Amino acid sequence: MLLTITTKRYPATDLGYLLHKHPAKVQTVELTAGSAHIFYPEATDHSCTAALLLDIDPVRLVRGNGNGHDFALEQYVNDRPYVASSFMSAAISQAYATAMNGRCKDKPHLVDEAIPFEIGLSVLPVKGGEPLLRQFFEPLGYEVNVQSHLLDEQYPAWGQSRYFNVTLRHTLPLKTILKQLYILVPVCDNDKHYFVGGHEIEKLMEKGEGWLDAHPAKELITRRYLRNIAPLAKQALELIMKDEVLPVEEKPAKDKVKLHDLRLLTVRDILQELNVSTVADMGCGEGKLLRLLMEKSQFKRILGMDVSYRALEIAQDKVKLDRLPEMQRNRIQLIQGSLTYRDKRLEGFDAGVLVEVIEHLDESRLQALEKVVFEYARPAHVIITTVNAEYNVMYEKLTAGAFRHGDHRFEWTRAQFETWANRVAAQFGYIVSFRPLGEIDETLGGPSQLALFKRSL
Predict the structure, then answer these.
(1) What's the whole-number average pLDDT of the chain?
(2) Which of 31, 142, 216, 456 is paired with 340 by a 20 to 30 Å CA distance?
């Protein structure tokens, strides 16, 4: 099993500082069932590659096994010595522990720098095939190239195997890439070579911090990482998808109505003024806006979409979907989906709504969202709200430079939001207007901001 990490960022040999592994030396790390060798096939200022080669001893694999098997011969007849599996994750955590933990003594500024990397994984088993592989990595922004292998070259009619050579490209801090590989390599394989207990939840939360909670496949990733052990998966998902309380924004000292409730009421009122009858809430969360819309008979068809299956379960409970009369139940539909992929279920609505959604995506993913909402779904009206970063200085408990929510990937000023919205409107044939939300400061504006798009073409 071979993992290669390549960069061409000048000077490329900075990779050696990040990994704490000298390019001129070959180093070996002992594992429970073999060894991991670290070496550099290439190390110049213009291109540098670090290789992690696993040498698994089948005898030690059997002697050290404590994971149990489905049948007696599996411990002797298996693919573990030849594929990138949970052994690769163990090797990453031991060989590159310092880099994964974000420490670099000689060049500490490199730790948080987004660097262009190319990752090579040889013989990665994926239970679910290429579509599942892409489902895991592409939402994180990776460019994924896949080479599949025949099940048996002597019998091509048997078709393709579940083994792939994978090349991933992305520009990220190295510590982030290592953490994502640590989680996703065994998730692709859907197996572990060691006992899985409660301690694995801690590893998942630690390595998944900052990216797993926003991943559209986080529930599947969590279940597979924990080997589909239902109690562990349930506990982990509750931690990942817990509703964070905003101590400042959601509990204002002066406003009688919470800011989030004010946003929802304002959006509902605008929709009523627009006299629309069908609405798609694109990022409905736990369904608070859906409840407000269901109270008004004007809205004949209401769609709630979210990436989180757990949030949709809560929304279903809050709108009392299973207790509604049939006529009322037919007005509303809840679906799971991501706004970075085209979804025909979003098409044909009078209005689309994104309340505090865009700031939860990496800015690099916004272009995909724009096409999904404004080009493919293309409702007559689109309402988007987002926080106003200028207003953050009004919150005493918010430290300078911090975001209002742990999952925010950016927070825009009014000028930044208007620049983005005006470009989107011009590109896709809409006109757009803006208004502040919440208690307004003469200099800073409101704590939130709203853009109303109207289709002109």
Answers:
(1) 85
(2) 456
